[in-house]
Amino acid sequence: MNNKQQTFITGYGVLCAAGENRQALLTSIKENRTGIDRINRFDTQGLTHNVGALAINYENHSAEHFDMDLASQYAIHAVTEALEHANLALNQMDSTRVAFILGNANCGMFSLMESLKGQHQLGFKFYPPHQIATDVSRHFGIQGPVMTFTSACTASSSAIAFAKQLIENDQADVVIAGGADALSELVYGGFQSVQSLSPEPCAPYSEKMGLSLGEGAGFLVFESQTHANQRNATLRYQLLATGSSLDAHHATAPNPEGDGVRRAFTQTLSYAPVAASDIEYINSHGTGTPANDGAELKGIQSAIGEQAMHDVSVSSSKSYFGHTLGAAGAVELISTLVSQDEGLLPATLGVDSIRSCCHAYQLVTNQARPQVVDVFAVTNSAFGGHNTSMLLSKHQKTSINTASKPVYLLAATSLSDTEVYNARQNSTDHFAEFNLKQQFPALFQRRTPCVAQFALGACQFTLQDSDLNLAQLPLPEFAAYYANPIGSLETLDKNLASFQDGIAELKSTHFPNTVVNATLGQLALGFGFKNSATCVSDLGNDFLHALWSATLDMREGRSRYAMVCSSQDDTALSQQVWAAHQFQADIGHFSSAALLATSEVLPAGYQPLAELIDFIQINDAQEHQALDRLLASKARKLSQVGNVVLSTHHDEAFATIAASLDSHLPQAQLIKYQPQTTPLHSTELAVRALMHALNTPVGDTELDQTLLLSVNLAGSMTGCILRTVRK
Amino acid sequence: MQTYSAIRSTLMQLIEAELEVDKEQLDVLSDDANLIEAPLFLDSVDLMQLSAACKKAFQLKDLGELSTVTLATLTRQIALNLTQQKQATPLETWADQVTSLKETDLLALIQRSLECEINGQVRLIKDSTPCDIIVSTMVLLAHNITPVLSANAAANVNAFSWRELTLANQEVEAPFHSMTAFLQQHSDKTIGFETSGSTGKPQTWHKSIASLHAEAVTFADTFSFDSVDYFCACVDIRHMFGFIWAFMLPLQLGKPVCYELGSTPDLQPVKDKQVGVILTPTMFDFVADQLNQNHCYLISSGAPFKGEKEQKLADLISYLSLSIQAFEVLGSTETGGIGYRPLGNNETHFTKFTAVDIYQNGEHKTMLRSPFLVANCDEFELKDKLIFSNENQFTHGGRADQIFKYAGKRYSLQSIEKVLQERFVGLRHRVFFIEDNNNNKGGELVAFVEGLSCIPTLQDIRSWFKDLPTPQVHFLAQFPENELGKITLSALQECVHE
Lengths: 727, 498
Description:
Chain A is an alpha/beta fold. Chain A has 23 helices and 28 strands.
């Protein structure tokens, strides 16, 4: 049992169709006014309707210097307000103790489309979602962990959950977390292709079916209680607990019984210092689609019980500002917070007649309701069948301290077009060409893009590599963590080809696979994984970040097994994206996977490859002063490191980092990892370095840990401290 | 307009290309397999894309929601929507000698009838005029009752007529904007057609609205009725042929139809309108002398359009320089349309409708597979002998050998007929085997011969058949023909009893 830090919200900022700041959003809520209107930013000719929710005054942002994506500009706007609200001056803090966690669904699609239309040249560079996090975090001089969660509509709630974990594990004092997304015609047309859009402003739970797409940003400042108290900050709300799950049901439709929502909510409750009956309000995902609303409420009810559900007020805020996708969890949470600041519950607007499946619930409709609540929840669900929930309170509660369970890496593989490397056997098998349909037909599904085929293949190879009895593995108990820097560009290519014939020509069969976490959903469907999950993106350290997320979840006991996977495809479009990052990647598809487990499920005598001890990150590895501060602050954690494996795409960074390592880890042997095969995928270097670290013996029994350091394409460095167990 | 098979073919291409379905899976896909189940396992996203692709490929404004869908239902749905789209203006009238019925009137009557209580699951329709038959049929469908059309229902106490309902008087707004939409809504329902039956006992065949519609679509596509302003139907719509040609087809084409029945049909066209004539061979004799330049189409079905009639038609075309296109359609209630041949130019070959598939099964039986079959029937054994000259063309060789078991031995009816044919050259004859389990020989073998003045003795008759069973031969002055020109066992037996 360790004494974890409690996590508090000290500030928040927002930009959406219903307001360009907290006050404006509150005014909209008080006046029962929707920001959903006609879309005029792009051509919707050929579509049956063009209703949407563009961020207020978005023109002010897009007209600015095009040195970052519109989503980045939205994020900066909201983060600035959040910091002001928290009365926090970042320049007065140790920047390595500040983290920035982004949730994003659409990638830099706005910029990409602008580039394709010839509006500017940087669209390809701005396309990777982690570029948004990089641009925003560097704008604020943040040097601590910077991560990007890309699980579509649950992205920002995943980001918020990770923020809590960073604070609880003392990896940051301040975490700015939330989400940002800019709407583009490709996304709008895609939702139309799956017949999800409403012809009028959405009114979830009502008989008017369909969602309204929105955009914007919402960010919150999370602080440890200790840090907030030290600076006399106002502890506005407490983040009590979070949870997540996978449906393993369908690419776009939720389980009709809300089973995934139930499991995410149940998990959240199991980590909360409150009972289900304490919950007074739930801001639900409530998209307005036929598939979502009833199923979600059913799932929540089965988690908290019929009586508690009868007593709880429920609304969806999406009728104010639409579905802001990657920003949804954060923006909707903020809509609840600004309302509660004034003693109100946000309503669902436009509800003339409640849908039959939603009659049984205490819905707040059409008018914000005066009611001060203490404990409240926010739920979100995403394509790929990912569900999240979070519990918050106005009054301080003492969070549950859970035992920290050791997490082991049992097996790992990397898969390319022609070979699979098995870390446990430390051997490579070759084949003419990887073909999921032929090699693992049970895992193959029609319309599965390459990124998912390779991910499924790598996971299956990993399970085989583990030497465990596969038939006895409880796959539904598995958590799943997926990483990909830019999603399926093979699918995006197809989508763009359809788009050339007009926005109305986008295909429903392609669109669901354009979101990064579509592959996460396919892993869940393929293997039946149903436990916790996240989907992350980076510019090289994607796999390490997924490992990090998995490790923190498993330490808390959320799952006993986890599959961690990354994959990346190779298309003409992906090459253009990487070329914009001065990176050559013309090398076929790639995937990697690792099987993790906690000690309680390891068979007697089983030797894992390594124990995952901890993770560190610095946003700009070449800022040597910051790096020194980070290494100094982690001196205790790094005291048993005997080997340092350092990989970087930037040779010039190596010397700076090596110098700092030399002074802070004099006991350790520095190994520069440079693979013989080049070029590599952006994610591949870190994976290969990890495989190398797993099979590099540590000579000293006292110094039995290895620090794997990997610098991504943007110069951010992530470190994984592991203890190789197998001799 | 596209045929059923053309729509189906395009659909298959769309499924393969748009949904990335393997060709091998498509090859084993049956028309009635639910697309969300084996072998395709499509999901909701696929169905959305398929719907979008269909709209584009068929230039449909709307296709409705695809939920439980098979290749067959989707094909019909597309055909129906194509029809709906084509009907920019509502169909004007169905008119018989008593009633003139507009489409809006019919829709309103159906809607008003919903206030009335109608009992039963299956009801015979006792109306005798076409417009009343149509109304009663549609009213029963709207009440989820299966209508059965029969020429012998008038005396049935349980038979139904919409005229016996007490309809609400108020103005109603029909939920359907067209009869096509109404029928689409009820496409899975069936209508029963009572036939005389080959064994003399009436038999009811149920046809789904979807199959009737598919047949009408095929006829509309196969023949070019563009020049027809309205149809003149000299057929009873209680027969399947009449219902399709004189109700479903005009509805499909959006063209008015007037019914001219009885022995004095009036075929004189309205002003200068071009008329399409729908008739049976029997009715041809009553109307032939009325044909003129305004009759641009003639369709005959229900019975063979035999030599002397065809010669008469050829002569008329020649003498009057008629520019009429005339066709005989081969088919039956059970099978629906099988093929067609032009009349008046000595063409003996029928062309198979493209949606129809005829093949020999493992037992060397001639089987027919078609979207026009009776409900719940995948394939049908043809009793007729069809001699194919190529893949799509055939001649009708009469009935195929029919085997019966008499006193424990197997014989063919053709062998009995052959004896009669040799004895009575040029005279019409019919042979039937009436199965009867109570008869120790398995049934009764009866024969009928027409127009013989000198009746042979029973001893003579026995001597003709030697190794064959001797039928009970009845000699009639004239064979009775029904309104379709058919000679049925029951009618022959009635003549004997008289």
